[in-house]
Each structure stands twice: as C-alpha cells, then as structure tokens.
Amino acid sequence: MSDVIAEVRGRAGLLTLNRPKALNALTLGMIRELAQALRTWRDDDRVEFVAIRGQGREGRFGAFSAGGDLRFFHQAVLAGNPELEDFFTEEYALNHLVHTFPKPYAVFMDGIVMGGGMGISGHGRTGATMRIATERTKMAMPETNIGLFPDVGGGWFLARCPGHLGEYLALTGHVIGGSDAVAAGLADAVVPSTGLPALWDAIAEGASAPDWPRAPQEESPLRSHQAAIDRFFALPTVSDIVAALESEGSEFARETAALLRKRSPLMLHVTLEHLRRARSMTLADDLRMERDIVRRCFHLRPGAASETFEGIRALVVDKDHSPRWNPVRIEEVTPAMVEPFFDSPWPAHAHPLRDLI
Predict the structure, then answer these.
(1) What is the mean pLDDT of the chain?
(2) 154: phi then psi, degrees, rounded to nearest 5
(3) Which residues are in coiled coils (predicted)?
(4) Is this structure's pTM higher than 0.85?
C-alpha cells in the first residue's frame, strides 16, 4: 500500500500519511504524492475541503509525522545522491503549496508532530486552516539537536509566536503538548483523541470547523514561563542568552541552559539569526532563505564533516547520543562562521524556489 493514501469522500479530499513504523517520516516519494494530490484537488470544484492525518501504529490516528527521513539524509550524503537536493526543494515547495492552498484545510495533529510534520500543518492561515491537537500531541522543532535548523517554514511560523516563544522553541527544541501549541499559535484547538474518528468522518459530510467539539482549554505550562522566556530570548546573541540563563538560579533557567549546551553550538547561532531575519519576511522569502541555509548545512563542510551529518549519526544511526560538535562550545562560534549560511549559492534568477510568491 502507498505511503500516502489520497481519497475523495463526499466533498472532501482526505490524505493519510501511511508509514506508521517510521512515525510517518516524510520521504521524497511522499512529498511528491502529497503535492500531486493537493494540486489536483486545488483545481477540482468537487473538492471543497481537505484534511490530513497520520496513520498510527495501532490505529487510524496516534502519530502525525516525525519529520523528514533522517536515515535517507545520512545515506544520501554518503552516496552523493542528488535526490537530497530534490528532497528539500520539493518539500519547501509543498510547504508553500499548503500555506497558499485556496480551500479549507484541516490537520489532525495527534501524537508526534515534528519538523517536516509541522511544515505541512498549514502555518495557521486565519480562517482557512484548522490545526487540531489532542491530549497526545507531542510537538517540536528539534533540529538543533541534529545539527540542523528549524526549516520547512519554521523561521516564519516560529517568529510569529507570542513574544519570544519562537526563539525558545527553535533553539531548545522543547517538546510541547496541545494546550501549549494553542498558546504558541501553532494549533487552533485541542480535541479529545477519542473524538477524532467521528470528526474525520464528519468532514466528508461537510462539517465546518465551528461545529466541531473541543476539549476544555487547559492551562498552558509554557505560558507560565512567558515572562522569563521573553526576558532571556530577546537578548541579541546565543552567548548572551546562555550567560544570562546560567547566571540565574531558577530551575527553569538551569534546565534551559543545560538543554542549550547539548545542541549544536554552530546551528544555535545560525538558527537565531534565521529566526530574526524571518520575522520581517514573507513565507516565500523565508523558504528561499531556508533553501540556501540547508544547502550550506550539507556543503560548507562536505560529507561527514558537516554538523548535520554528525548530528544525524549520533542521534539516529549510531545512537550514541554523543555528537562531536565543531565548534564544541557556544562561545567559540564567531559571526564569520555564521554568515556563509546566509550567502545564497544561486543567483536570484536560478534559485530553485524562485517561482514562490
């Protein structure tokens, strides 16, 4: 069976990510199937509404998507596989297609929603996207843990979180639940997971978002730290943020500093610069910038020398969880190391995402 199931029921186009053993991690083939379905339904007057979910290991829900296929990235680097370039170009084009899709789009964000899973969540188009979290939602942009940065439009949507929550989530990769996702503007409602099958079936019958039942809004643990997050993560550099955290005695500050010390120092600096630039950009411009950065992630230091290759090796392949970051410490990263990531390898007329508007 296909890794993406696309079907039309009633007035709805329904998409199911069907790679449950891999937590629906996106492959290039899946990206292409999703894009083809959305382009077809965009122009089909019979389809008035689109919904997407992930097939869980034990049922129709339970996992949305853990992100991109990291093992493919690792193997592609070793083999010099040009499909690595295609993956990011086509994934970012898909993110833009989802964001600009002209019809209502519902995302069932049950279980794990990370990385590439966030990229196909719609980025919160007001009035057009319904992002449904549950009590089982585990959401994060954890890319700094693998020597990468929050891509798939992450600079754009994280920069638009309240205050400086975006910088906090981007740098730490902190995993949040449904109530935190709503508070951060990354989900629209929390629905009990037991109600998802009925909601899915109701979509084909034309149910509109306001008719759907929602769980009572729980207190957001993340928002209880909003003042501290804004104070620390508004600071100008990663070194300043960590120094301030380590000079304060609160449990939150200690835990956050310890978390940052485990991430790639270089990519922490790249990520903060990325987010600060993206705050004033359109999504299309941010995706073009991200395409530049990800190209640099794999080619500034080719092959096994890249931070991204090393991070994936340590977390996913060898699973020793002991990445050999270069530089080793946050304080050793200089602006001269960060700037090349933002130097586009393509002239504007030849950029692989030049047609996004």
Answers:
(1) 94
(2) -60, -35
(3) none
(4) yes
